[in-house]
Structure to design on (260 residues):
């Protein structure tokens, strides 16, 4: 059965989408069959993988979740888009923005995404879920089905302080919804090692969490080339294959594979 990884942080601008796409492509480069689910109504992962007009898509995550709610049959191949770099994408668009309202009144609202993933899980080695920068019902759905969580954290003071709130939310999800949920690790992103404040915040995170939570070995460096990738429809491995960011995400993929 495929391993399910949620890429989550309640704070925006931490590199969740970049991490989801880059990790997915890197795992595919290792020969793994990977599905990336875009569970963010801002559909950044969808656009980053080259879908320029997502609102014209006929089938998206919102469509699939509506069918699950209505107890309609779901084809495991429906809506899946194959990207040229070897990963499959279940895209999102603005239709996902109204899903919170749809989910709120129904029984089992936290497990709708889980029901879909159980249909497709045997088709993939890894299923990655890119979540919104908030703990809405879609993010809770991701945590409710995930085997583990990867937490991208930028070395900024408020991001480091917000990490504690996210960890409490993960603990509550584990207690009430998904007892098997584990924390795969904290991934330091957009790191500028030249800045003294960066070094101090990284040290603070390591001291606060390093003994109880894995911190991935290779921080993701800050890079203009990495920022450019979202406009190209390609991953960092195609846009800047010899750069430091590609090397760091390749290291992350190796650690993920070693932990499987």
């Amino acid at each position: 059965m495929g391993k399910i990884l949620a890429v989550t942080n309640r704070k925006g601008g931490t590199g969740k989408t970049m991490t989801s796409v880059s990790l997915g492509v890197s795992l595919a480069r290792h020969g793994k069959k990977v599905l990336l689910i875009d569970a963010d109504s801002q559909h950044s992962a969808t656009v980053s993988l080259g879908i320029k007009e997502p609102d014209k898509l006929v089938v998206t995550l919102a469509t699939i979740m509506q069918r699950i709610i209505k107890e309609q049959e779901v084809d495991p191949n429906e809506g899946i888009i194959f990207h040229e770099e070897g990963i499959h994408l279940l895209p999102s668009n603005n239709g996902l923005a109204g899903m919170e309202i749809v989910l709120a009144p129904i029984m089992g609202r936290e497990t709708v995404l889980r029901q879909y993933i159980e249909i497709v899980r045997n088709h993939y080695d890894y299923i990655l879920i890119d979540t919104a920068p908030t703990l809405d019902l879609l993010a809770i759905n991701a945590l409710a089905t995930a085997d583990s969580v990867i937490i991208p954290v930028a070395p900024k003071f408020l991001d480091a302080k917000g990490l504690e709130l996210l960890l409490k939310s993960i603990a509550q999800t584990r207690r009430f919804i998904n007892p098997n949920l584990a924390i795969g690790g904290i991934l330091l992103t957009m790191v500028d090692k030249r800045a003294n404040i960066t070094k101090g915040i990284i040290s603070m995170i390591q001291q606060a969490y390093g003994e109880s939570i894995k911190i991935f070995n290779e921080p993701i460096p800050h890079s203009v080339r990495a920022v450019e990738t979202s406009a190209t429809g390609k991953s960092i491995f195609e846009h800047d294959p010899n750069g430091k960011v590609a090397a760091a995400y390749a290291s992350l993929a190796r650690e993920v594979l070693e932990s499987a």
Remarks:
- Residues 157-176 form the longest helix (20 residues).
- The chain has eleven helices and seven strands.
- The longest strand covers residues 182-188.
- The CA atoms of residues 41 and 96 lie 5 Å apart.
